[in-house]
Predict the structure.
Amino acid sequence: MAKRSPPAPLSATRRRTLAGAFGFTRLIVELGVLSSFAFSLALFVAAIAQAYVKIRAALGELGEAHTAKTLIVSAVEQADTLLVGMALLIISFGLQALFVGRLQNVPAWLHIDSFDDLKQKLIGIVIVALAVNFFSVALEWKGGSDILVYGAAIAAVILAVGAYSVILTRQGDSRSHAPDSPSGQP
């Protein structure tokens, strides 16, 4: 087998061009971070505004038979909105940490060191959001078998996402416990 010669070093112009391309990519990711953060903030504000409107309306109807159930459904729907907002916030922080630079003063559970970390955090939120969504539908259920089909569909998605999470975790564990090759190369 013929021995290959090492690749020629990049010229200064080519290095600047590549650096500019990577800098532009970083800018695009930063715009994604900002847009995800903006949507998250908008969802939090919308959830707060909806809570205010629903609670104010319920205060005028205290003692009515349907008021408590209306408040419960509204609270569950607000939780669903907040969970989606939290998922977008985690995406924003994760992209920032992975592509731009680590954020300071965030809780330890929000430190994201890899795409696998980001995926695991999002999987947990997606599963809880699906469960909360089903709970909201179940609270408004009027009878019939339609809820079984909806519940089965959500259960199938949760099982698939859960299985993916287990596979992702096992792959991460096998990579972190893999012995180094004799040459010291991974």
